[in-house]
Task: inverse folding
C-alpha cells in the first residue's frame, strides 16, 4: 500500500494505492477530509482526472457536512418524534406538575413534565437541558476508558451546539468541545468523535501519523464515520 497527499484545484486529497479493483472516493463526515483509493496500476494523472470530474460532488458533500441540513422544524407537541442515541422516540407532554423534568423509557419514549400552558420554547429548553445531561453522563466513562489507552489527559470537556463540527480540541488547554447534536446519533459516534479529538493531543494535524494513531486505537472508525452522515 502506498499513500500520498496531493492538492487538486485547491482541494487536499489523500491518495491510497491499494489492492482494490475500482477507484473509490470518500468524504469523511467528521472533518470533511477526502480520500481516494485506487488500484496499484493507476497513474497520478488518472487520479487527478477522477478527482476533477467529481469535484462538484466532493464540494457538495463537504458543505453538507459543514452546514448540516437545518433540522426539521420541531414544535414540541405530543406525538412528535425526537432523536435520542440514533433512534426516534415519540414525545409526550405531561402538564400540571410543579417541576420541569424529563422521563425517558425505551418503549414509552420521551415525556416532558412541564407546567400548564408551557410554550414550545420552554419545552425545547427542557429537552435540550436533558440532552446535555445525557451526553455529559456518557462522556466521563469514555474519558476514563480512553485516557490511559491514548496516554493523554483531557483537562476539561464542554458541550455546545455547533453547526459545522462534531467536536474540536484546544490542544494547549487540553480542552475538548463536543457538539450537543451527538446525543441524537448512535452512541458509538460520541466515542469516535471523542477519540478523534483526543488523538489530536498526540498529533495536532490530520497527518498520516494522526490517522495511524486513529487506526490503531479504533480500527472501525470509518464505519462509524458513515453512521454520522446518516440523518
Ligand atoms: Zn480532527
Result:
Amino acid at each position: 500500500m502506498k499513500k500520498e497527499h496531493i492538492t487538486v484545484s485547491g482541494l487536499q486529497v489523500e491518495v491510497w494505492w491499494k489492492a482494490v479493483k475500482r477507484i473509490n472516493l470518500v468524504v469523511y463526515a467528521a472533518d470533511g477530509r477526502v480520500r481516494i483509493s485506487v488500484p496499484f496500476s493507476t497513474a497520478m494523472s488518472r487520479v487527478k482526472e477522477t478527482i476533477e470530474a467529481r469535484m462538484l460532488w466532493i464540494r457538495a458533500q463537504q458543505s453538507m457536512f459543514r452546514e448540516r441540513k437545518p433540522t426539521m422544524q420541531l414544535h414540541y407537541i405530543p406525538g412528535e418524534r425526537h432523536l435520542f442515541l440514533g433512534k426516534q422516540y415519540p414525545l409526550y407532554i405531561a402538564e400540571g406538575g410543579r417541576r420541569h423534568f424529563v422521563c425517558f423509557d425505551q418503549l414509552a419514549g420521551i415525556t416532558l413534565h412541564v407546567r400548564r400552558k408551557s410554550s414550545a420554547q420552554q419545552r425545547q429548553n427542557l429537552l435540550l437541558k436533558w440532552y446535555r445531561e445525557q451526553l455529559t453522563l456518557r462522556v466521563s466513562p469514555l474519558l476514563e476508558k480512553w485516557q490511559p489507552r491514548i496516554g493523554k489527559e483531557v483537562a476539561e470537556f464542554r458541550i455546545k451546539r455547533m453547526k459545522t463540527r462534531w467536536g474540536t480540541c484546544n490542544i494547549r488547554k487540553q480542552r475538548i468541545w463536543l457538539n450537543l447534536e451527538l446525543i441524537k446519533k448512535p452512541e458509538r459516534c460520541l466515542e469516535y468523535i471523542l477519540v478523534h479529538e483526543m488523538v489530536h493531543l498526540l498529533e495536532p494535524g490530520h497527518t498520516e501519523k494522526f490517522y495511524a494513531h486513529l487506526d490503531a486505537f479504533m480500527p472501525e472508525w470509518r464505519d462509524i464515520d458513515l453512521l454520522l452522515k446518516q440523518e
Observations:
- DSSP finds six helices and eleven strands in the chain.
- Residues 31, 196, 200, 206 surround zinc ion (CB under 6 Å).
- The mean pLDDT is 92.
